[in-house]
Specification:
By secondary structure, this protein is mainly α. Helix content is 64%, strand content 3%. Helix 1 packs parallel to helix 3 and helix 3 (33-45) runs parallel beside helix 6.
Length: 238
Amino acid sequence: EEIVMVATIDNLGQVKSKLVTKEVSKALKITKEAVQFSAIQALRFNEDPSALGYLLKVRKEKSIQENVKTAVEYAFALGQKGDKKAIPALHDNLIATSKTPKEVINAKILALGHIRHKDSVEAILDFAKTTVGGIRRGGVNKNVSREVRGSLCILTGTDQGESLSAWEDWWYDHRSKFKMSAVEGELDDERAQRTWTKLWMTPAEKEEAKASAEEEKTKRKKDADSDSSSDSDSDDDF
């Protein structure tokens, strides 16, 4: 039953084992959204090297790619691996004028930003060229999306702003000698940086971050109560 399959995958799907990834991969072909989503997510965070191979085998699976929820998670699953082998699959139908939903396009752009390879930069810029730009002072001036700019900043460690031409000029000047740093670039916007970091956290890391935040919140409350108590004692003495 669907509920049993989902529960089994959620509980055991991330166990690091090629035997587990093989069994989970079978669920990718079951055309039920909840089952496919759970299978994709399990393979996304399963650390066994075989997980990526099973994900790539379903890059043309219509039931996954034509459903926004599973297509978005599929893109994130490929990006999570950070492996250049996933770039061609993310490049599939990555055209602004295609019928691909915006949510899926954005997920693919973000996923490419998590794969530290020159081909990711090329794929993102190729996509940006397909967007419709506005005409200003007789010339075409295209602005890149927030996702494109953010991913390029993360990959290159530089920020050329919203102008596509500025990014293209920079890449033309640096492409031949560019070496991808192992360390991600940082976003100037703190909120955007937090969102980016959270996007690629594993479930275990999210739980750890949540526990740490709760601990910090409790500590601040105790400190505040302690300060309030001290102020009250001072008033009494006065």
